[in-house]
Amino acid sequence: MYKKLENFINNLDTNTIIDPRKEELIPFIQYIKNKINTGSEVNINFICTHNSRRSQFSQIWAQAIADYFGIAVKTFSGGLEVTAFNKTAVDTLESQGFEVESSGVKNLVYELTYDDDRSGIVAFSKLFDHSENPQSNFAAIMTCSHADENCPFIPGAEARIPVRYEDPKIADGTPQEQEVYAARSKEIATEMKYVFIQVVD
Questions:
Q1: Model-level pTM?
Q2: What's the CA gap between 129 and 138, in Å, rounded?
Q3: Helix, strand, coil shares of the chain as percentages rounded to 5?
Q4: From CA 150, how far away is CA 195, in angstroms rounded?
Q5: What is the rounded distance in angstroms from the CA atom of residue 28 to the CA atom of residue 189?
Q6: How far is it, in rounded angstroms, from Cα 140 to Cα 138?
Q7: Which portions of the chain are predicted below pLDDT 70?
């Protein structure tokens, strides 16, 4: 793993997560543990309305941190609408240690790498049931209230678990934009680290 990203993960303090939030994460942790204990593949699809910020952060951090702990999972993300992977979110991940390449014009396709020995994560805005996402035997992790409330049924999901985050979009166009995105990314990374620490224990 790239040293800058490894240091970032090492410095994430899971003690900052309050107990009620830890309780909310239990179904997510238990899902992963159960799949591992039965020798099953672990597929996780993080879902938000636009697949532009929170679900992308969640997918990317979950994959990188699972690999950091040596836990075999496959992460995905999708939305209820197709927009684009937000540029400030991408820049945030790059500043925190990922290497980023992009291609395309409007809905850019990004490849985020974090280890020379692993394939990069291909990320772009897409529907939750996109052909590149699992169609069955996966957990749907609902990362925003709108998607959670407006999409009560996810076809093919064997578990549907709300793990909501506040939208950093509220800071778009303000002097606090980069700070808010960095904080949300770090919050999600910290919780993913906590989840996989519990899986390892």
A1: 0.96
A2: 11
A3: 45, 20, 40
A4: 26
A5: 15
A6: 6
A7: none
